[in-house]
Amino acid sequence: MLDKKHISALKAVVGDDNCFDDKAHLIAYCYDATKNRYEPSAVVFPRHEEDVSKVLKYCNDNRITIVPRGAGSGFTGGALPVTGGIVLAFEKHMNKILEIDMQNLVAVVQPGVINKELQEAVEKVGLFYPPDPASQEYSTIGGNVAENAGGMRAAKYGITKDFVMAMRAVLPNGDIIKAGKRTIKDVAGYNLCGILVGSEGTLAVTTEVTLKLIPKPKFTKTAMGIFDSVEAAMNAVYKTFAEGITPVAMEFLDNLTIRAVEEVHKKGLPIEAGAILITDVDGNFEENLDSDLNSLEKVFVANGCTNFVRAKDAAESANLWFARRNASQSLKVYGNKKLNEDITVPRSALPQLLAEYKKVSEKYGFNIPCFGHTGDGNVHTNVMTDKNDPHKVEMAEKAIEEIFQIAIDLGGTLSGEHGIGLSKAPFMKMAFTEAELELFRSIKRAFDPNNILNPGKMGL
């Protein structure tokens, strides 16, 4: 609990209507997509950058911890106030698109802007913001930047870091900094944007983001490849890119995921298939897209594709993508607790990765359905268990540790887009040397010597 004098001081900064310590607000802001709960001592809604600066300075002076929060849609506990303190929430006021610059192809936004709202706004003027996390309809740009979010279009266009040109942010002591420029080239000084993107709110609080835009492609076409085995599908993924073909997306569902979606939604999916790959191609000339699909089909068939289905129109395309977009929630048919990880490996390691996961599944007796962004090597691995059985949960956690080690041994990483947060913090020592971890700690101390910003995250 915060002393009432602190609540009064914070209300003096942001106003009575923007600072709350009642039970309803504390409960509403105590959890994220992990479903874990840690109540803050107060929730503060800054109205503008000056509010953020004053709140941070006050909290730094009084050693009050702060957790920046977008939509609370993260899967690793990045927005959880584990030490109490203040949740700094941006959705109420700092949620505006400030500028769409048609000449320089950039957008300037506040951190509380919803990803999908930005996409729709720029597409109205013929532009395109590619990063499309599955949470795009509710996750915020500030949260996307904090976690370096990806999405299905990452195979061709990249992830959030590839589109952040500049940021305004507030340091824990209240100082306001500008990182990056609106220019295409900028090698003056250290790359502060590169440090802040993906830092999970542990170094500074973002107040404004300048994002690169591109012209919107005029045409998109969708296809699905059906394979008898996961290995065949994974071989088709990396060999597609090796042939010089770059689809917008290359999404994967294994047999367990196919069966789960079909059981829940009855979409007529091929439940006997070992795996399916769903892919998009785009461009400004429709005939080129047909050529791209022809090339994709050739590679798929050469690597075991038994049926290559092309969507005839937008409705059929949406129907093919439905399975992928509804994969995660469909997995409840296998258990009431899902340990969901977003392992990423080099594309060429995908066949071995999935083969090793099968061994872990057989060893522990758990269903481990997998799906995800195989176009960029990012596999969502889901260990399904029973939350009411402590022994099974313990075994599932051991399985996850083995899964992490497999990914690391294959040259991969703990997270492709969900971040480290709380849930993966214990595994950082598996992925980094002590010298590397100490360098991370040194960066944290340089930005936040009093450790008031999002403490306990990323294993720092």
SSE topology sketch:
Blueprint: H1 4-14, E1 19-20, H2 23-28, E2 42-44, H3 49-61, E3 66-69, E4 86-89, E5 97-101, E6 106-109, H4 115-123, E7 127-128, H5 141-147, H6 154-157, E8 164-170, E9 176-180, H7 192-196, E10 205-212, E11 214-215, E12 219-227, H8 230-242, E13 249-254, H9 255-265, E14 275-283, H10 286-302, E15 305-310, H11 314-325, H12 327-330, E16 337-344, H13 350-364, E17 370-373, E18 378-385, H14 390-409, H15 428-431, H16 434-447
Parallel strand pairs: 2-4, 3-4
Antiparallel strand pairs: 1-2, 5-6, 6-10, 7-11, 8-9, 8-10, 12-14, 12-15, 13-14, 13-17, 16-18, 17-18
Helix pairs in contact: 1-3, 8-10, 8-13, 13-14
What does this structure look like?
The protein has 460 residues and is α+β, with helices and mostly antiparallel strands. It folds into three domains: 4-92, 2-Layer Sandwich (Uridine Diphospho-n-acetylenolpyruvylglucosamine Reductase, domain 2); 97-215, 2-Layer Sandwich (Uridine Diphospho-n-acetylenolpyruvylglucosamine Reductase, domain 3); 217-419, Vanillyl-alcohol Oxidase, Chain A, domain 3 (3-Layer(aba) Sandwich). The chain has helices at 4-14, 23-28, 49-61, 115-123, 141-147, 154-157, 192-196, 230-242, 255-265, 286-302, 314-325, 327-330, 350-364, 390-409, 428-431, 434-447, and strands at residues 19-20, 42-44, 66-69, 86-89, 97-101, 106-109, 127-128, 164-170, 176-180, 205-212, 214-215, 219-227, 249-254, 275-283, 305-310, 337-344, 370-373, 378-385. Strand 17 and strand 18 (378-385) form a beta hairpin. The chain starts with a helix and ends in a 13-residue tail after the last helix. 47% of the residues are buried. The model has no long low-confidence stretch (mean pLDDT 96).
